[in-house]
Amino acid sequence: METLLIELLKSLVSGLLMGMVFALVALGLTIIFGVMDIVNFAHGEFLMFGMYTTLLVSPLMGVDPLLSLPVCGVVGAALGMVCYFGVVRFLLRGPMVAQLLGTFGLMLALRNLALLFMGSEPRLVKSGVLVGRSLVLGPGVVLESTKLAAAVLSIVSFVFVWWLIRRTKTGMALTATSLDKEGARYMGISTERMNALAWALGGASVAIAGGLLVNFWPVEPNVGLLFTMIAFATVALGGFGSIQGAFAAGILIGMIVYIPPVWDAATSFAGVDAPTIHGFKYTFVYLIYFLIMVLRPQGLFGWKQ
Amino acid sequence: MRKLAGILAAAFLAALLAAGMVQAADKVVKIGVIYPLTGGAAAEGRELRAGAELALEIANKLTPGVDMEMAKNAGIKSLGGAKVELIFKDHQGNPQLGADLAKKLIEDDKVVGILGCYHSAVTKTVAAVCERFGVPMINDSSTSPALTKAGYKWFWRTTPHDAQFTRDLFEFLKGLTEGKAKGVAAVPKADLATLASACEKTEWGTNVDDQIKSYAKEYGFNVASSILYAAKSPDVSAEVQSMIAAKPGAMLFASYTSDAILLMKTLQSMKAAPKLLWGQDAGFEAPEFVTTLGDASNGVLTRTVFTPQVAQVKKVAGQVNELYKKKVGHDLSGASARAFTGLQAWIYVLEKAGSVKPQAIQAACNSIHIPGEQLVVPWFGIKFATTGEDIGQNVLGSGMIGQYQKQGDKITLEIAYPFELATANLIYPLKGF
Lengths: 305, 433
Known about the structure:
The complex is a heterodimer. By secondary structure, chain A is mainly α. Chain A has helices at residues 2-36, 43-61, 69-91, 96-118, 145-167, 169-179, 181-186, 191-213, 223-238, 243-257, 259-270, 281-295; strands at residues 134-138, 141-144. In chain A, helix 9 runs parallel beside helix 12 (281-295). The mean pLDDT of chain A is 88. By secondary structure, chain B is an alpha/beta fold. Chain B folds into two domains: 29-161 and 314-382, Rossmann fold (3-Layer(aba) Sandwich), CATH 3.40.50; 163-311 and 399-421, Rossmann fold (3-Layer(aba) Sandwich), CATH 3.40.50.2300. Chain B is built from 13 helices and 14 strands. Chain B has helices at 2-26, 42-60, 95-107, 120-133, 162-177, 189-192, 203-219, 237-245, 257-269, 287-293, 315-328, 334-353, 358-367; strands at 28-35, 83-90, 113-116, 137-139, 155-157, 194-200, 222-229, 250-254, 276-279, 301-304, 370-371, 381-382, 400-407, 410-417. In chain B, helix 7 (203-219) links the parallel strand 6 and strand 7 (222-229). Chain B is globular, with a radius of gyration of 23 Å. The termini of chain B are far apart. Mean pLDDT of chain B is 89; it is low at 15-25. The chains are: A mainly alpha, B alpha/beta.
């Protein structure tokens, strides 16, 4: 019984942490969608750029990978702005399909740029405060320090973005732009600037996430895809454009991912020789996603039509 | 009149050029090579490509100082000195893409045959395309046993497959309990009786998973947790948690590069303490495994077909390894050594066939015998089975198990099995992370 409880506790804690990591990665995506109704397919590539930034900058400046996070933020914001002013602004004139295919093209371009300059092999930050560290809470309950840090950063970022959007004038202008573009323009809000801000904010948040994740995850030009599949599910599940929705959905997905070890512990406790279900880990995620899409198409916290 | 003269001159020139091209085309034999050049296994892909390219260089020009038949000729002698040209394609680990690329190579590039594809799942679809078109395919590096069970007439595999490799693992574990391992006293069987495995869930990994289960039964081990996981996944800590909960003596893996690194990092951060870690080649013996993990790789075992230590027992391996080092900057790995050997097999087959007609190549494949002293890998040679269960399988291959060992600043892959070839004392048990 004790082992079962410990396994349950472990899964709960790990699921919570992993969920916050998923939420952190999805934050930028939901900001951009919330303001502009554009799905940024290049989101994972922004994450990858953040990872490479830490990888390159921290040895160059001779500082801990953690201290390079502000640089990641700047790089991410700059990348977001360049993408907006260079590509997305023009896509807005076209139909929805142009926007979809446009950011898809952006994704391919960024990925191949990374391939060209960084090569295809996986790389990893080798030393730093977080690297290889973990926090032992009790018998067998171990928290990986990178995930712990990412979870903290996740909470901070969500609170910051929530505050920004709900409590500041800029945030209200952002909300106004996302609710009614025409109306906002009549009220004297520069929607162009708001759009650029959304891209800068989205880019910066996901690049910072990347800069943190590279303490644990190896980076290669295709790494973004692994995370964006989950990020898309997170954003859709939480409701497109909903900040708190993304957070809740991230945690929900994190929990679902930890069903298999709980199943293993339960079957071994019951003495049943059942096969593991790890192979279906993401099947559960997408099954829940599918169900919610059918029953509640606007997502858990969605408010958009 | 002047205009007419101009047209005539141009026509003459064009005819001359065309004739020249036809002549040149006669002297080139094109082979399509399909590898994972980008994606999660890109590191291995780069190794494979470099290995095949080195074999190509040696085959196309006289290379003194390498004791191989193909080093003594420039091009294929029996085809009038024709040069071999490789057309590389990137399948990204995607079976559908692999099949499309194979079709393109056959129909558009008119290749004589195919080499590849590393991922067993991709090799499976590409082999099916080759079978349909009647184009020969030599597979250098895919180890799912099922590939040679299909009874294909146009598919030959030089590398040993996982049934053999997995048997090697259990022979190794058994030997360990009998005190056969170099520098380690007999280990009580109870220490290793419980196993946990995690294999990636495509063609290759699922087959390894099956092999591990069936050999464990045969050799009297208990696989307490056998997990199939998605290699293209952002996180594997749920899987690792289940493995640790099973309290295994040994942990076994079948992983590609990115996921192998992620698994090791996760084991490390979750403070796993197995006595033994073994990987089924692939990610575990990619150069990035050691360069990114550093000290954490110390003591990890991987099955392999090549380590630079082979040069101590095989002269030709040392000669080729030196050339490879000059070209790429590091030693041959299991992947590059097998790609080298795969293309080498193609060269010898073409030499024997003396023709680029598919039937002639097929006949050459079915009757060829390349002696072991020609190869860089420590096999008895290459000879393909034409009857029985494993049609097209090289029956003269053999495997090894290596262990990463840190000596000073350098981490080298020492031979741990076969026990009689062991180059260093085995590190057992692992010190833990």
